[in-house]
Amino acid sequence: MVQQAKRSATTVGAILASARQLFIERGFAAVSIDDIAAGAGIAKGGLYHHFRAKHDVFEAVLDAVQAELAAELGTRIQRIEGHRSPHTIATNLRIYLEAATQEGLRQLILVDGPVVLGWERWRGIDDRHFMVSIRTGLVAIMPAGTPPTEIEAATRLIAGAVAEAALACGAAPDPVAAVHLHCRLLETMLCGLQQHGAGSHPD
User: Fold this and answer.
1) Distance between CA atoms of 143 and 84, rounded to whole angstroms?
2) Where is the HTH tetR-type domain (predicted)?
3) Dihedral through CA 93, CA 187, CA 189, CA 86, nearest 10?
4) Contact in structure between 46 and 24 (CB atoms under 8 Å)
């Protein structure tokens, strides 16, 4: 039983590794189930034993990629506890923008993701991984006693800004300069949230 579970996990890992490489290199539409199975070194029937359709493979790949980015972001944000700096948080969010400058990852996460899975399922993956890290960072810098509803609103505001910034950076003629610019503007937004919260206004 244990050996069977190990073999199954190994097969799934090979399928996802093959699919990830192909989706990044070619995009979802240009990849077939046969391509994925061949890359994994298995028969097409073996792939269907674990996944019902190409969409399901894609969702698993996207979830894994988002989990990796979120884990790195979460690790960085945990390090700033006690160092409540919008600059540090904006710098850490840079990893998401830099990922978007890699053409294959941008296609996978920001272009194919919402189209293939639909907005709700794509947003669910984003919420599960990325939003948690942003929320953690905002709790660290926003004024003590900020209502949870304001924390949630600010989280969605920053997440939306980062997603739009990622698209802009990926399409920019000079991606490095674009990442730098958007990180600086994100820092300005975070400074405002740190000083005034989400629902207060300066005098």
Assistant:
1) 11
2) 9-69
3) 80
4) no
